[in-house]
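Lab manual, section 2.4: Encoding a predicted structure.

Procedure: take the sequence of the chain (206 residues), apply the prediction step described in section 2.3, and record the output as structure tokens. A sample record is shown.
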Amino acid sequence: MGTHRDWYSRGYFPHCDQPGKIQSVTIRLIDAMPTARREEWKDLLERSGGNARLDAERRRKLEAYLDAGYGSCLLREPMVADMVEEALLHWDGKRYQMLAWVIMPNHMHFTFEMAEGWPLGEVLKRFKGFTSHEANRIFGREGSFWYPDYWDRYVRDRNHLRKLIHYIHENPVKAGLVGRAEEWRWSSARFGARETTREADHEGKF
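Recorded output:
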């Protein structure tokens, strides 16, 4: 258990850490961004100025890099993707309430409501630490698995939540991995009605 930090920054995107907030988070593997284009994506990460339109455009460009499937794509291994999903859902209803998620070959998106006493940074640190250790054990490798930082954005209203969940579920379709969202094995889209119910349960949060 820890103390929530409200708004803070680790040098790139600002992070929002407040109990009861619904957050959408993206984490990626250590090699998911191509080193050959480091200056380009580093510039995207560092430019800000608080302009919402520019921030949204930066995110679209950065997420396009991820969807291009750069790097080793270790999350493509079913055993590893299963382990990561099980770890994510293990604390559902305890450290957070999960609303939607998808595990892609080199990154993952998830949206959840934060619980009191479980700061966002601490939740992600524990999740990434455990899954990194287990993935390295499965592959018989050493070294970093996840990139240290993460992208998060708090959900403003019901319309924003619907759009985020739709984006999360459609990510494998957009990347050309499946024809329909519910066909992707590592996504809440395959549960359909249950996730729609969870979304409706959170309408009173706004």
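Check your result against the sample. The chain has one domain: 6-205.
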